Amino acid sequence: MAFEEMVKMVSILRREDYDVKKGPYTRPNMRKDKIMSSVVTVLEQKFGIKRAKEQLRKRWSDLKTREPEQYW
């Protein structure tokens, strides 16, 4: 994943509160799936590369746990 793609993904997920830090939501799994679908769409439109939701979820998890310096 290119750096620009990663920056765009992180900005969307933080803006949309993907990690539910701002409060409880009803149906959080459905909400997260909808957010991830929009991330897939935006990345495909902007960079022309289609990525699977599962791949992006894994990358997001890796960024937070294994690569916190890149996350920030």
From TrEMBL:
Organism: Aquarana catesbeiana (American bullfrog)
Protein name as it appears in the record: MADF domain-containing protein
